[in-house]
Design goal:
Blueprint (H helix, E strand, L loop, with lengths): L2 H10 L1 H21 L4 H14 L22 H9 L3 H21 L5 H20 L4 H16 L3 H14 L16 H17 L7 H22 L13 H8 L8 H13 L10 H17 L12 H11 L4 H15 L8 H8 L7 H15 L8 E5 L2 E5 L1
Antiparallel strand pairs: 1-2
Helix pairs in contact: 2-5, 2-6, 3-4, 4-5, 5-6, 5-7, 6-14, 7-8, 8-9, 13-14, 13-17, 14-15, 14-17, 15-17
């Protein structure tokens, strides 16, 4: 079998991709369970029971778990079916549900089936990292993608359901509102955003009281402020936090006093500059570029980003690569970006590199940041018009050139 055929088999074999997708996540959560690494799951479980019993959601509970809860009150309803199960069964089903939900989201993208299979294979290691940490990020990523996919299909009600659900779970899910420009019914888009915001705000009243709920939102805001201060401050756990552009700058240049606005304001201006290409808002290639930009920016400019958060950025990197016309240098660049991002903290690199380069300087963020800048430049130069465009005809999905 020729090398090209082997690569085709690995990238586009759906059964193999699904095996890797669910198999690696299951292996990761089983290992975490065996090593008593379920702290995050106990935090999740606590959100449900503390809401149920009207106990402060954001207070420390050292007898139950380490660290504190950072998720919104709505999360109490999402985790409820799993929290009611025995811990080891609940955490396994939670992990598989995360993987299944993100798989569902990929399936709704306006991409050829082969590309969706390739996404599963390319993102499965990053999903495993998230699964090992027992995270909710795959669900947040899935909600952002579904917000895009349903806006693309002119189903604003469904799009805003997922966008606002993500925002009420982890606040940065609100980035899905960036897809507003793609809606043909923008007033309806705004209306559904308000409707679902009200629904999700009050939804926890199903298991708790109004006074507790309203105070919980205040506590959530205060906790996020404290978490931000902790993320940007040097400390014993700081190497695992703020794996972002700001974190990278702070650590490489030893600039602890960096004001994040010096990064975030130029980043916001660059991101919004993409919207100057307004006459291409209906072009699927442009829309996919914006999706990639949103997914990557959500992670690389967040002070709360950890290694496990990059399951949100990785689909953006991979979709961008699939859109490119392939050349030797494009392939080499993507392989380098892929390895330096998804495998930055793995055994592919030496322990010395991991402990003295990647982690201390937040270098996992560097290649996604470079690709994000490339996307900005490509949009500015209208190079997205040269992208490979998946199109639908009477015979099915084809690759247009």
């Amino acid at each position: 079998m020729k090398a090209k055929q082997v690569i085709e088999y690995i990238f586009f074999n759906r059964k193999f991709a699904l095996f890797c997708w669910f198999g690696l996540s299951l292996l990761a959560v089983l290992q975490a369970s065996a090593e008593n690494g379920l702290n995050n799951y106990f935090i999740f479980k606590g959100v449900f029971y503390h809401t149920l019993h009207s106990k402060n959601l954001y207070a420390p509970y050292p007898a139950e778990y380490g660290d504190i809860n950072l998720y919104g009150p709505l999360f109490s309803l999402i985790i409820a079916p799993f929290a009611l199960l025995p811990d080891k069964l609940g955490v396994i089903l939670w992990t598989l549900a995360n993987a299944g939900f993100l798989l569902f989201a990929f399936g709704k993208l306006p991409l050829p089936a082969r590309w969706k299979t390739a996404l599963l294979f390319l993102c499965c290691h990053e999903l495993m990292i998230s699964s090992a940490a027992i995270q909710v990020n795959p669900i947040v990523c899935g909600c952002i993608i579904l917000g895009f996919a349903y806006t693309q299909k002119n189903k604003e009600g469904r799009a805003l359901f997922f966008i606002m659900a993500a925002a009420f779970i982890k606040i940065y899910g609100i980035v899905g509102l960036a897809f507003f420009i793609f809606s043909k019914k923008r007033l309806l888009f705004i209306t559904w955003a308000i409707i679902w915001s009200v629904v999700f705000f009050f939804a926890p009243l199903l298991i708790t009281g109004f006074s507790f709920l309203s105070h919980s939102y205040y506590d959530w805001f205060q906790t996020l402020k404290l978490k931000y201060a902790k993320n940007i401050s040097p400390g014993p756990d700081s190497l695992y936090q703020n794996v972002s552009v700001q974190g990278m700058i702070r650590r490489i240049f030893n600039w602890q006093g960096l004001n994040d606005l010096l990064v975030l304001v130029p980043a916001a201006i660059l991101f919004l500059s993409q919207y100057l290409q307004h006459k291409y808002f209906r072009d699927l290639r442009f829309r996919l570029y914006i999706l990639c930009s949103v997914l990557i920016a959500t992670v690389i400019f967040s002070s709360g980003s950890e290694s496990s958060t990059y399951i949100i950025a990785m689909p953006g990197l991979c979709i961008w690569y699939l859109l490119q016309r392939k050349s030797k240098w494009v392939n080499i660049f993507f392989v380098l970006a892929f390895l330096l991002t998804s495998f930055a903290y793995s055994d592919i690199f030496t322990p010395w590199a991991r402990h003295h380069l990647f982690r201390p300087y937040s270098l996992k963020a560097i290649m996604p940041f470079i690709i994000w800048l490339i996307i900005i430049v490509q949009v500015y130069k209208k190079q997205f018009l040269k992208a490979i465009l998946p199109v639908q005809n009477s015979e099915g999905v084809l690759f247009a050139v």
